[in-house]
């Protein structure tokens, strides 16, 4: 989950080395809304059903079918889904320790704290930018781990499984992907959360989906979708997903495999365009969803040189997360305890890769990548 998608972090205007671009600027990200999507939302609006209703239920059924035997609950956001995953497991308001990767959106902290738990921020692996299992204490078992499949790269779930009583997959950037063993991301942990934010793999503007393997946990979170009065009062929040948003998400979910295939084609095209001295993004593997196409520069100077080269070609390249937004820094923790994340933010160059990218835009991106300076 990355808040930087809506408001990309700007780092000034680095020196440029490429020729001026021809054509309109290419954004870093953007949603793909088709006529099919518009028709689905229009039908929902004309039905007169604006609150959660039949389309929300249909979306839940579609996810439950794809990720059988998981139980599905549509929610108002990915953050809400993470919060409810912890509460559904009985960890709410217990101060339970929940490990999260430092390279990620601050919504991870929001979700853990909103659930009444305690976040433990952990450094990441160099290759996949996911939470590093080796950084966790081998002597004690955590209450929970939120394993983010960062940029679509699968976290090492098998290594994380014995580390915590509850394993939550954050699939907000990996819908439609599989791990190296061919298992669908979202169907491996005790719970999984997806986001339908505007620039995710599929979009409803906002919203998300929570999957849970334990039916009792699923039943506990369903009360947050029930607007009726409680027999015995307990506080709860409204985390429901309205029908028009569910209609949009369902329309896109039905063509998920095509969306994922297009992303993979784009990633392969960009890799083929790279000059010999530029390595492709580490961590890219068959089966995963290339949510981001992130090159890794040698240092900050080269990072800024590459970003300048691409921006001069009218391509909105981006470093994604500045150092001050790393979660350990947000909590005032010592940067030297998180060396991999500190190094990654000064080397990452994210190139536009999203479902709405046209063939002409992809051609311009590939051409600019071919000319990346050494």
UniProtKB/TrEMBL annotation:
A Pfam family per the record: DegT_DnrJ_EryC1
SUPFAM superfamilies recorded: PLP-dependent transferases (SSF53383)
Residue numbers of N6-(pyridoxal phosphate)lysine PTMs: 200
GO BP annotations, alphabetical order: polysaccharide biosynthetic process
Record bears the keyword Transferase: yes
Signal peptide: none
Region span, Disordered: 1-32
UniProt keywords, alphabetically: Aminotransferase, Pyridoxal phosphate, Transferase
Active site: 200
Keyword Transferase applies: yes
Required cofactor(s): pyridoxal 5'-phosphate
A GO MF label: pyridoxal phosphate binding
Alphabetized PANTHER family for the sequence: DTDP-4-AMINO-4,6-DIDEOXYGALACTOSE TRANSAMINASE (PTHR30244:SF34), TRANSAMINASE (PTHR30244)
Family the UniProt entry places it in: Belongs to the DegT/DnrJ/EryC1 family. L-glutamine:2-deoxy-scyllo-inosose/scyllo-inosose aminotransferase subfamily.
Record-given protein name: Glutamine--scyllo-inositol aminotransferase
Species assigned in the record: Streptomyces cellostaticus
